[in-house]
Design goal:
- There is one protein chain.
- By secondary structure, this protein is of the alpha/beta class.
- The chain has a domain at 52-297: Spore Coat Polysaccharide Biosynthesis Protein SpsA, Chain A (Alpha-Beta Complex).
- Helix content is 52%, strand content 14%.
- The protein is built from 13 helices and 8 strands.
- The protein has helices at 2-32, 65-73, 95-105, 120-130, 149-154, 180-201, 229-239, 260-280, 291-304, 306-322, 327-351, 357-381, 394-398, and strands at residues 52-58, 82-89, 109-114, 135-139, 143-145, 162-170, 211-215, 243-254.
- Strands 3-2-1-4-7-6-8-5 form an 8-stranded mixed β-sheet, with helices on both faces.
- 41% of the residues are buried.
């Protein structure tokens, strides 16, 4: 009886992990093959291109704010239809001075400094109340636009069914001793999955928060105590009955952390925020046979619970070996234990200046799942604050 239960737990856990990481992307790619993105778009010279308000919350972003502003206004989109709202969450560096100086060059900037820490959702909500354009573009300070990024984000709002359009954020791979290569591979895969979800069902499950556009009529700001406002906004658009898609031509570039501890901290914060959103939008998980629910379960929810599946997989495998279930389970247990032993091996090699890409992928996978687990623990304990510190980025690390 114990062996039978352990076998069910083992195979079910393995299937769920395989589904979210392997089967779902494969099945989605097959369904998306030959299909086209929304074709009802504005042309680049269309005189009906809508006005756009860009919203940006910053805190101590002196390293990147100038490049961010310059990249935003170096655009093919008509400047007379752009307004750039910047809210500073009580920055203590030179961010205020830099923005105020650039206001003289770019009169489309509307700057609002906050004298007390408010948190990103609070800043964005305040900015959105001031904004009046029919299209909002939400972005981060470390995400830099290409000249045609704004056009490719906005062109789809010619179709009244489209409520949100995500950007295609590309990441440079900085150096082999960090995790930028692993993050780059992960984000490229995520971009493709989001694009294919939009092509197949019109239900991209969550835009990358660094760059996306949302129809003003579909925009619902996240509550002030929510950690991941972009995911809240994305799901609220789907809940309102609009489509959400990803536009691969809306290219922008993100400077990311190269350090595992920094990325672990960020992923743990995102994880806690994801569970906040899951509680609010659990209704989107039904009916399970709808494309929207299937994508939400497969792409996100199962992945968030993968740490538990991995623990159950190891526990069930150990029980099966102890019960003498056969040589196959002995091999799978050795395989699981071997993967875990590769984590300290990667650390030791890294200390010696030896960097193995495969080992780093294994370290990245287990570390990010540990961050998911920590995020759930923090969510269950209660979210105390939504104020944030910018992730240490490559420019800062290189100084």
């Amino acid at each position: 009886m114990i062996s039978a239960v352990a076998a069910v737990v083992f195979w079910l856990s393995l299937l769920l992990v395989a589904h979210t990481y392997v089967l779902f992307p494969w099945l989605l790619a097959r369904q998306a093959r030959g299909r086209r993105q929304n074709a009802q778009v504005y042309t680049a010279d269309d005189e009906n291109l809508p006005a756009v308000d860009i919203l940006l919350a910053v805190h101590n972003e002196e390293q990147v704010i100038e490049e961010k502003i310059h990249s935003t206004f170096t655009t093919t989109y008509p400047l007379d239809r752009l307004t750039f709202y910047i809210g500073s969450d009580n920055s203590a560096d030179q961010t205020h001075a830099l923005v105020e100086r650039l206001q003289q060059q770019y009169p489309q900037i509307r700057f609002r400094p906050f004298s007390q820490r408010t948190g990103k959702p609070g800043v964005m909500e305040a900015l959105s109340r001031e904004a009046a354009a029919p299209v909002l573009v939400l972005t981060d300070a470390n995400v830099f636009f290409a000249p045609d990024t704004l056009y490719h984000l906005v062109k789809h709002f010619c179709n009244p069914a489209i409520g949100l359009v995500g950007g295609n954020i590309l990441n440079p791979e900085h150096r082999q001793e960090g995790i930028s290569g692993q993050e780059k591979a992960y984000l490229e895969r995520e971009n493709l999955i989001k694009y294919q979800e939009g092509v197949v069902w019109g239900t991209m499950i969550g835009a990358f928060g660094g760059c996306f556009a949302v129809r003003r009529a579909a925009y619902q700001p996240a509550p002030a105590h929510f950690l991941v406002d972009d995911f809240y906004i994305s799901l609220a658009v789907l809940q309102a009955g609009y489509q959400a898609i990803n536009e691969l031509q809306a290219v922008c570039y993100e400077d990311v952390s190269d350090r595992l501890p920094e990325e672990f901290r960020r992923k743990a914060r995102i994880s806690a925020g994801n569970f906040q959103n899951l509680r609010v939008f659990r209704g989107l998980l039904w009916p399970m046979w709808s494309g929207r629910a299937y994508a939400f379960w497969s792409h996100k929810v199962l992945r968030w619970f993968t740490p538990f599946f991995l623990l159950l997989l190891l526990l069930a495998n150990t029980v099966l070996v102890a019960e003498g279930a056969g040589w196959f389970y002995g091999l799978t247990l050795l395989g699981q234990q071997g993967l875990l032993l590769l984590l300290p091996l990667d650390w030791l090699l890294r200390q010696a200046g030896i960097h193995n890409r495969l080992l780093r992928f294994i370290t990245h996978f287990y570390s990010m799942n540990a961050a998911l687990l920590l995020g759930l623990w923090r969510y269950l304990r209660g979210i105390k604050t939504t104020v944030w510190q910018p992730t240490q980025r490559f420019q800062q690390a290189a100084k």
